[in-house]
Design goal:
453 residues, alpha/beta, Lyase, Ornithine Decarboxylase, Chain A, domain 1, TIM Barrel, 9-stranded mixed sheet, 12 helices, 29% helix, globular
Length: 453
Amino acid sequence: MGRPTTPRPPAVPDMKTGTDLAAVLPMTAEVKDGHLFVGGVDTVELARTQGTALYVMDEATIRHQLREYVRWTRYHWKDVDVVYAGKAFMSLAMCRIVAEEGCCLDVSSGGELAFALRAGFPMERIYVHGNNKTDQELAECLDAGVGRIVVDSFEEMERLSAMAEERGKRQRILIRVTPGIAADTHSYIQTGAEDSKFGFGMNEGLAMRAIKRALELPGLDLAGLHMHIGSQIFALHSFSKAIEVIVHFMDEVRTETGYVVRELDTGGGLGIAYGLPDEPSTVKDYGKVIVDGIKEHVEEHGLPVPRMAVEPGRSIVANAGVTLYTVGAIKEIPNIRTYVAVDGGMSDNIRTSLYDAHYEALIANKADQPREMVATVAGKHCESGDIIVNDAPLQCPEVGDILCVCATGAYCQSMSSNYNKQVRPAVVMVNDGEARVIVRRETYDDLMKCEVG
Ligand code: LLP
């Protein structure tokens, strides 16, 4: 990703082995007999038995990250919901892990809600997002009995209230406000700035009007406010600033309407290490900045401490995942670069083409060897922009090697496509030496299952 990932000097062979890549790999990663192991499972063997391309997710890392969030937010205040943002990676198995860890789940479409329902996820722990929820989606949410709907527009508010009334319900809602903060990240994933399709801006009085209207509508139970300033944020001061602004607004709301905000959801956005030079903030520091920041500002304004929620997505799953590919062709263009072509690409990882994202790569069956060359990992799709890793250090590749791209657990499988009628890879969850397929590889029949002609 462009900013705030540390600017990269031109890539040179860095002689690092798999062992040196711990910062971007799952916490259980180790190198044994020259092979990369994750969750106690040999990834080279896994590639042989399951085929490639293959997403591998490490259960221990996912659970550890969820627990870190619970620990370091509740350390500062008892009443904090950790709401996993399902858009980062969602499967039935993932929903069950989130439920087992006692966390909540953020869904942003009827489809994500359907996964939560099928997984038996407790509906009172669901937060629903979206800047244009359809009537059908709102009906599904009401009928399922979701805990909270985060309202994004006046139109939605009116429709939701009417639909709740029809069902004899009062739906608990949060109002999404945009605090006017341009978070220090790629502009495509900034969401808290004034010019955003999301939420009610504070400056022109929109957010205040939204609150007044929500308080009037009989089908709504206004619990509080939500904000989300962006994603892959390294610098915690963007969060601090946004909290200062929103708590100030809570005070204005009390003065103008008498309403006291009971709940405050500050969204997700904590960045992760994609590259070795990246130094994201820790969950521990993040928890302190968010929770202590809210406590400090509400105290200044003489407001009660609200129930809080944070919505991490990427920082729960990104480093838990790797993608395995088989090297199929190597093209050396003298004095220009070496392309290593693999059996996947922009259909399983669009992030490099879309955001100029950067990844670390290694050869899983040569994980004990130094990365003594620089190569560009290209996919198999019919366009030049189909690159997975641009100019990065790599062990010397040979056809048939298993190439591992690190930190692909977030926004890769969830943003995957069938471009060129490529079947989507399977997802394997590894834990304690066991591997289980949680999403099977698609087949050509799957590709045609919606065809009616
Ligand atoms: N809450 C809301 C309302 C969100 O919109 C998002 C992410 C999150 C929480 C989770 O944010 P995280 O902790 O994952 O940063 N496709 C892009 C990322 C888009 C993020 C969208 N919203 C990427 O691949 O970088």
